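In line with agreed milestones, the collection of sequences with tokenised folds has grown. One record among many is set out beneath this paragraph:
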Amino acid sequence: MNATTCIDEPSCDNGNADVLENNDFNRGISLMKQGIGNVLYQEKSYSMALLFYTEAIGLCPDSASYITKAKCHMQMHEYKKALEDARKSLALDPDSLQGHLLVATCALALGERDLADEFVHLLEAFEPTDDAESVQMKKVDEVYTLLREAESTFAKGQYFTTLRHLDRILERLPARKLKLHRAECLVMLEQFDRAYQEASDVLLLDKSEDDALYVLGLCSYYEGFLDLAVKRLRRVLKASPAHKKAKDILGKALAIKEKIEDGSRAIEFGLYRKSHRLFSEALEIDPSNRMNKMHLLLKRSRLSFKLGKLSDAVEDCSSALAMNAAAVEALLLRGKLYVALNNFPKAVADYETLCRVSDCYEYKLLLKHARRAMKQQQQQQQQPPPQKRKKSHYSVLGVAADASADEIRAAFRRKSLLHHPDRHVSAPPEAVKLQEALFKEVAQAYAVLSDARKRADYDDGRRAG
């Protein structure tokens, strides 16, 4: 009975042997598939290599294929998947230098700064075992250092320097997040076409990349297209509510947009001073946005024109032209302001620039009128000023031409007392000089009119000429 039972039922030892034999078989197949994946990896057939690495892991979950699979994802710029596999490799072997290098590289590529800081620090405890690992460690260190310098210079507004750092980083690690960081830098340098192209290229590869859409929103914001900027930035925040940069720019865009809309409504009701104040407040929200600043300066300049503040209006136009010397709207407005101020030479200069920028008949006509007005002004300035008619001795004393000697004497006494310098000692210096001149004039008039012969000669001269 017992013998039969032993024969019918397999022993535990036989079952363990079968399991061990099966595990060995799977491990062998796993190693074979990993080897095929390695060959395909060397041939740069990364998609095919991934299939074999995945199958190898399926057969033997504790295999080393996670490392090679992560490298394969990195070659395909799939850094999120590469990071996932690198973490799994470290779970199997926490002391793996390759695993630490992969996690650090992926963290840098994905812009996960805290994770990058952690693993770059951990790498300091490792020593490379061969030249390949030494090169990889050096590369991670260089990228980490350059990235910190790029972040520092970007925060300081040194965008050209940041761009150089990012170009050097991308030579070592061509990751999409880093390309988008460069695109953001290009926006700040107002190289909008290049920034737009780089962000669009990333979106073609990954439509869910919120940083790419953020760069497009940033382009719209700094180009002055506030409605489009708001639309794009809201899409970013819908996909990624914690996107800090998108929140910041959206807040500024909405604030500027609200001030402009309120200012425009105030103009419709003739509230020019209120509108002027609202545009001034909008200018203070983000002075770094040159395009919006230029538009707001021109809006405020027109209002200053309406309010009769011509000098303020000219100043705003000049500030706008300092940002773009060929701005047609600013040149046209400042030219009209100079005409209103009778500063025709400057008006002519602006209209000449305007005609070089735009071949428009209206601008040519304005230039023609300004030149004509300038010529007339110059002719008037060249004419000698009319001679000021000298006051007669009679009018100086305040008497009629037929006044008697007694009347002349009384008038002299009255006028001389009025203008005598001793009476004006405490007056300001200019007033003292004026009174001295008037007193001298009174004395000269009396010297002539009090002498009968001199008076007769004086009267003859007045009648003759």
In short: The first helix runs from residue 2 to 8.
